[in-house]
Structure formats: structure tokens, C-alpha cells
């Protein structure tokens, strides 16, 4: 017998694999919040706001995990998607207002679908959080795809709402676990439109259907970057040069701080990334880092060490370096430089 709609789209306990990129995005988000708390320690209202954001993320992730790995299917009910979207927007309105941005719900009729109310709330929260990260005004609309599926579309997202943004990573995990199609496309205007299809994926409607691993988002290596490799050890200096050259990146290699400083004083090499075998606390390195930051806005700072297979991502504003083990550079250097 064909199950009724209330049961058809539910699943039992789910075996979820957390993508490494999600953990990386989470680490970067937490580091950014920590930096904000440190910078605004003398402004209690901003500290409270940042603390509330951390608390909200923790509660949201706990609720999401519990909902996805429950031993029994959630209780589906007939939900008015338009009303649910309006309620979610009202809850997010203060955050959008503080950012000087607007999220608008386009008018439309009631669209009813049988869903777990908690999962729908998570999906809307993550969708709006991703939109807010884009830094532009957005429009949320709803439409019917077929008798089993409806579409949520968030239009006009800014480029900062990238595929490694934390809310997008969590939304992608939720969509994959529930079998919902999740699409994104760039528009001629340079913005991004995101669609979430509530209901089972059908055929080739989802580009990654049947090939989930192949569609995982990847960090992009910006080939306009110019890298300074500063390392007293010739073997790792040569290996960095080989990897950077094969990737098509411009770079210069120096063995000592004095060599790098002399080059910087005599010309403008355009270095906006630093791969350094000299520790961050070494005398003179902090001054070089600050000079690079003032010249071109240092995009990436990587410190090489002798710990095998170390791979620590930097904090978002490059105030502290990423740390890589020299032994595993072929597997880590380009990934650490990618943004």
C-alpha cells in the first residue's frame, strides 16, 4: 500500500557523514566570533550580541543533530509554508535590521505540505542565515513544483554567501539527509539565487543526484595571488616552488628575513600571501607580516613546521598563521592557500 503523504517523506535514523569543509567553516566562524569578542571587550552590548550568536548556533546545531538522528521519524503535519516563511522572517528581522539589510517575502497563496515543523524551521533559519552572510537585500518566494514538492527560493544573495559559508554547509547537510534538492546558481547581475525543494528529489532535478561526492563544494585557488615563500630549509622551499609553479601561481622564494626585507624595500613584488618556515614569534617576522598587510592586505599566512601531517587553518583575518607540516606539503599547501 502506498503510504500517505504524512509518512512518505520521513526517514528513520540517519547515518550522517559530516563533510570536512563544514568543520572547517565552523572553525572559521568560531574564530571570527572570538576575534570580535576580543576586539569589542570594552563594549558590553556587542559582547552580549556576539555571545547570543554563539549560543544560538550551539542550540541550532544541537536541535538539528537530534532531529536528523532520532530513532523514530518526526511527526509530520500539514504546514502552511507561506505562513512559516513569514514567521521565520519576523524572527530574523532584528539581525537583518542591525546589518542595514532587508529580506522581503514576496506575496503568494497558502501552500500546504506535510512536513516535520522543526525541520522546516531549521531549513528556513539556515536559508536566511546564509542570505544574511551575503551582505545584500534578498527576496524569498514560494511556488509549487508538483503535487509532492514545493520550492523555496532566496534571490539576490551577495557573493560572500559562498559554498563554504557555515549556514550553507549546515543546510546542505540537512537537505542531503532528508532527500531535498538544494540548488544554487549565479545570475548575470553577479548575485546568487538559492532554491530548496521540499519533498523527494525527482530524477535529474538535483544536479548531484546519484553523485553526492562529486558535487561537494570546493575552495577556490585565486591565481591572481602572489606568494612569498620564506624558508631557511632549501628542501621545503624547493617543494613549495614546485607546487606553486604547477598550480600557475606567481611566487618568489627567499631563505632569510633580510633577503625578503631587502626585496620589499627595493621594489613592490605584490606579495599578498606568505608561506614562512620562520616561526611567527621570531624577531622581525611580525614587522614583515605587518608590512605585507599594509601593502596589499595579506590574504593568507602559512607557517611551516616539522610536525608530520599538521594542517591547522588560519583565522579569517590572518592575524595568526595556518600551520602545515613540511612532510605533507603536496597534500596541504594549495588547500591552505585556497579561499
Protein described:
The chain has about 350 residues and is an alpha/beta fold. The chain contains 10 helices and 13 strands. The chain has helices spanning about 5-10, 20-40, 45-70, 80-100, 115-135, 165-180, 235-245, 255-265, 285-295, 330-335; strands at about 75-80, 105, 110-115, 140-145, 150-155, 180-185, 190-200, 225-230, 250-255, 275, 300-305, 310, 320-325. The strands form 3 sheets. The protein has a 6-stranded mixed beta sheet with strand order 9-8-10-11-13-12. Strand 8 (about 225-230), helix 7 and strand 9 form a beta-alpha-beta unit. Helix 5 packs antiparallel against helix 6. The longest helix is centred in the N-terminal third of the chain and has 25 residues, at about 45-70. It is elongated. This is Response regulatory domain-containing protein. It comes from Roseateles subflavus.
Secondary structure layout:
Layout: H1 5-8, H2 20-39, H3 44-68, E1 76-80, H4 81-98, E2 103-105, E3 112-116, H5 117-133, E4 138-146, E5 149-157, H6 166-178, E6 181-186, E7 192-198, E8 226-230, H7 234-246, E9 250-254, H8 257-266, E10 273-276, H9 285-296, E11 300-305, E12 311-312, E13 322-325, H10 329-337
Parallel strand pairs: 2-4, 8-9, 8-10, 10-11, 11-13
Antiparallel strand pairs: 1-3, 4-5, 5-7, 6-7, 12-13
